[in-house]
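Try this one yourself first.
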């Protein structure tokens, strides 16, 4: 039973695992590792681990391996190392590596855990580029404002026309300074949020991966499964964060295109609710109130799906266990309305005016994971579909979001 459990964990793990010996020969690789590097089952067995290292780095890796053999020590995932690997077809990919070791029949066995992070690294590079662009714009605007203030200082205050011009110019400068302040605040919130939201799931993955190695006895199956679920959930959270960043980036650059199709609202909502009932982690009751009138929409179905996923996920996230989430639909004046009502923590009155701003999070949800981008993206999607969103909320009593959407997407 023990061997079967470890074999299942090895073969079906959602992270690449490669076992090699002291000489650097690959002894075994799991399915996910083969998939990452583009090899068939057992094809890596017997090859040197350097086959997975880019050519310019092979000699250094051989020396690193020798040093590791002299003093084997475990290395946790995510130690800020810029690591690269190479696939069978020669494609270079970014990876995250964790090392461990054990002895079998007196022989050192090295265990390498591999996670491909090429898309994440590309996203991080885009974020860094965006931050640098914001800093450059801020510096440029500051220089412009300095020049403008110097010019104003030498303006002839004695002439009425010049006075009017100065007042007008000063007003413009104040507006620009206010906008500059907003940009700087936005950049600070972005950097702080990104740092925290990436660190939290990565820390969970690291902790659970480390603890998994300890639960290797019969009877530890429940503990191992719990940590495996933590790792899966953390990876899912990271994926959702990156998806939010990528969606916002595409929206900012105008790269989101709509694809309208015809579908019935009732069937769409029924499928949506059934999926969420299966995925609900806190046993909330999700009720879809039957509508007397069905509607056929010619809208972007995937875009509407993303909108509803965000709103229902928020209702689940910010509601207590076993509480009621009610969804209603109606048809009025060639437009459909969809309401999502929860019994959750609600939104503080002072935060409601900022709810759809980028990176904004209400004061009462700071301990709950999130990027502060979801509702901003929802509003942008609805704008593209010709719809709108509103809400009513009372703290500690619940929130109701209302979507109004035309039957046909604007041309």
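Now uncover the answer:
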């Amino acid at each position: 039973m023990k061997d079967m459990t470890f074999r299942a964990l090895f073969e079906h793990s959602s992270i690449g695992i490669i076992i090699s010996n002291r000489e650097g020969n690959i002894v075994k690789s799991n399915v996910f590792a083969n998939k990452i590097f583009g090899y068939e089952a057992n094809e890596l067995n017997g090859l040197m681990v350097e086959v997975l290292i880019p050519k310019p780095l092979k000699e250094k890796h051989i020396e690193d391996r020798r040093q590791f053999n002299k003093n084997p020590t475990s290395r946790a995932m995510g130690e800020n190392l810029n690591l690269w690997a190479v696939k069978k077809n020669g494609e270079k990919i970014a990876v995250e590596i964790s090392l461990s070791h054990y002895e079998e029949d007196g022989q050192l066995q090295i265990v390498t855990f591999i996670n491909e992070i090429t898309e994440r690294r590309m996203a991080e590079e885009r974020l860094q580029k965006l931050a640098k662009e914001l800093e450059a714009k801020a510096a440029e605007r500051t220089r412009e404002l300095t020049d403008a203030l110097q010019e104003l200082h030498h303006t002839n205050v004695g002439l009425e026309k010049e006075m009017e011009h100065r007042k007008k110019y000063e007003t413009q400068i104040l507006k620009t300074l206010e906008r500059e302040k907003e940009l700087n605040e936005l950049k600070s919130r972005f950097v702080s949020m990104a740092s925290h939201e990436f660190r939290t799931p990565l820390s969970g993955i690291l902790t659970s991966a480390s603890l998994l190695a300890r639960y290797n006895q019969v009877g530890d199956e429940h503990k191992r499964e719990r940590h495996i679920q933590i790792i899966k959930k953390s990876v899912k959270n990271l994926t959702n964060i990156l998806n939010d960043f990528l969606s916002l980036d595409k929206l900012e650059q105008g790269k989101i295109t709509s694809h309208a199709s015809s579908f019935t609202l009732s069937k769409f909502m029924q499928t949506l609710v059934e999926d969420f009932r299966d995925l609900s982690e806190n046993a909330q009751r999700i009720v879809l109130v039957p509508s007397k009138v069905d509607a056929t929409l010619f809208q972007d179905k995937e875009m509407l799906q993303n909108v509803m996923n965000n709103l229902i996920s928020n209702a689940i996230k910010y509601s207590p266990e076993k509480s009621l989430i009610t969804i209603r639909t109606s048809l009025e004046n060639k437009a459909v309305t969809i309401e999502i009502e929860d019994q959750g923590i609600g939104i503080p009155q002072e935060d409601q005016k900022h709810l759809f701003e980028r990176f904004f999070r209400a004061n009462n949800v700071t301990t709950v994971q999130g990027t502060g981008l979801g509702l901003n993206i929802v509003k942008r999607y609805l704008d593209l579909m010709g719809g709108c969103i509103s809400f009513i909320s009372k703290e500690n009593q619940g929130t109701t979001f209302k979507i109004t959407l035309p039957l046909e997407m604007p041309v």
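Discussion: The chain has three domains: 2-116, 120-252, 261-406. The mean pLDDT is 81.
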